[in-house]
C-alpha cells in the first residue's frame, strides 16, 4: 500500500510541482531522468570498467587481469557508477527513507547502460523478518521497474532466503562468504530458466551475496548470468 501511494504521489502530484536539481537547485531539463540538471548529470558520466567484474579500469575492457586470474561466477556486470555521491544519496533515500518513487528513475538510468538485456530478470531475495521490518525489498522494486524499461520478463520469487543473516556491511570478505553459506535456495524445483538470466541488486561490493545465487543458476544449466546493479564499489582489503 505504501509503495502504491508513493507511485501515485509521483505520477499525479509531484510531477505537477516545478522540479529543481537535487544538487545545485537549478531548474531541471524536461528530459532529465534523475532529478539532476544537465550539468550535474555529468556526475553520472560512465567510467571505464571491466565488463565482467564492473570495477573501474584505465580503459574499457572485456576482462581485467583480476578476472582472468579468478573470474567471478557471473559473466557481465552493468551499473550506473561507483557507490559515492550522488548515487549513495539516492540509494539511502530509497532504502531507508521510503522514497519508493526513486526506483523508476534509477532503473531508467541503469537501463541506458545495458546493451543486450537478459530475457529474464530476478532479484536478490530478502529474509521475511527483514522484509516485515523494512516493508519492501529495494532490489525487487528496482527489478520490477527495470524489467518494464527493458521489456523483459521478471520472476519476482525465484529465490528464497531460508535463514536470516547479519547485515553484510562491515564484514570482511571471508566473513561475508561464511555469513551467506546455505542461505538461498529456489522457491520451487526448477529445471530450466533458459540460457540467459540477470540478477538485480542495489549495490555490489564483494559479490558474496550474488555468488551463491549464480551457483544455483549455473547448476540448472544457465550459461549467461548478468548482474544489474545501481552501484559497484571496490572490494575492501582483507584485514
From TrEMBL:
Phosphoribosyltransferase domain ranges (all copies): 142-238
Cited Pfam families: Pribosyltran (PF00156)
Family: Belongs to the ComF/GntX family.
PANTHER family assigned: DNA UTILIZATION PROTEIN YHGH
Name used for this protein in its record: ComF family protein
The organism of origin for this protein: Vibrio zhugei
